[in-house]
Amino acid sequence: MNRFKDFSTKLTNVLDVRNIEIDALMKNHTSFKVGGPVDILVTPESFEQVVEVVKLCKVDNVPCFIIGNGTNLLVKDGGIRGVVVKLCKLDNIRVDDEIIIAQSGAQLKDVSDVAAENSLTGFEFACGIPGSIGGAAAMNAGAYNGEISNVIESAKIIDNNGNIVVINKEQLELGYRMSSILKNGYTVLEVTFKLNKGDQQKIVDRINDLNRRRSEKQPLEYPSAGSTFKRPEGYFAAKLIEDTGLKGMSVGDAEVSTKHSGFIINKGNATAADVLNLIKLVQKRVKNKFDVDLYTEVRIIGEECSNM
């Protein structure tokens, strides 16, 4: 039973009813295509709406989770109690000379394309990273020798007092897949990037090359959440997994990709339990063989399914 249905009525004071969904299946809102229902899913269309939803949840003591486009997220089969705020409709991107300002729901690929259209270099590395700007800033996303910390100037966030404030690069405390956003539970609304003028053809060629390499090496044809594990210091997670003999290992329809063992993929009908059990199996086997701890890069939230 959805005990937060009554709360959805209060949300109509802030949001249009079309931006409120009851018992939304999270498998339809994550790139892994797994996950049970959330009591209430909302998709605000302005910063002010995000602030008001978060305030309402706090006043009524309703759990509130903020997500971008669900590309680095594993939701358990029992789903999520409370409210999920999905920022996908906050996707505006604007350019001012060498500055790009992107709202949190904008896709990294789209920002990369806009940069290329404006002959701005520095964002090519992100062209194939699945996910949105807000999550990328929070995780300091990176690939191919580039990362968000190289180009970010500042972020507009909601702090823990419900205020919209701008924090600069130093205050973001960016590290490997870490930031003050994650540490403090801030909500990203908008990010400002400083790029450089470059040769448009060279920028486009670089993007095409990275997309080709990604397509050749990564299992993009299957649902996943990207790289499942963080890189252990001094090692590569994919090599450790492969050297443990786990490439192709499966639990249900969850599989360690035969194309890239750093990815756990959904072959079609995997449950979150399948994925989680496979993650645990990989962690245990790698620990036993190499005495290295693997930590998940994917964010795991939600409840176990009571009948599983």
TrEMBL record:
Oxidoreductase found in the keyword field: yes
Record has Cell cycle as a keyword = yes
Which GO molecular function annotation, any one, does this entry have? UDP-N-acetylmuramate dehydrogenase activity
Location within or outside the cell: Cytoplasm
GO-annotated biological processes: cell division; cell wall organization; peptidoglycan biosynthetic process; regulation of cell shape
Q: Which UniProt keywords apply?
A: Cell cycle, Cell division, Cell shape, Cell wall biogenesis/degradation, Cytoplasm, FAD, Flavoprotein, NADP, Oxidoreductase, Peptidoglycan synthesis
Record's catalysed reaction(s): UDP-N-acetyl-alpha-D-muramate + NADP(+) = UDP-N-acetyl-3-O-(1-carboxyvinyl)-alpha-D-glucosamine + NADPH + H(+)
Listed Pfam families: FAD_binding_4 (PF01565), MurB_C (PF02873)
- Report domain FAD-binding PCMH-type positions: 33-198
Q: Which cofactor does it need?
A: FAD
Q: In which broad location class does this protein mainly occur, judging by the first location in its UniProt entry?
A: cytoplasm
The organism's place on the tree of life at top rank:
Bacteria
Q: In which pathway does it act?
A: Cell wall biogenesis; peptidoglycan biosynthesis
Its cellular-component GO annotations read:
cytosol
Could you tell me the EC number(s) of this protein?
Answer: 1.3.1.98
The entry's active site is R177, S227, E297
Family that this chain belongs to: Belongs to the MurB family.
Matching entries from HAMAP family are given as: MurB
Q: What does this protein do?
A: Cell wall formation.
Name of the protein in question: UDP-N-acetylenolpyruvoylglucosamine reductase
**Origin organism of this chain?**
Clostridium thailandense
Question: Upper taxonomic classification of the species?
Answer: Bacteria, Bacillati, Bacillota, Clostridia, Eubacteriales
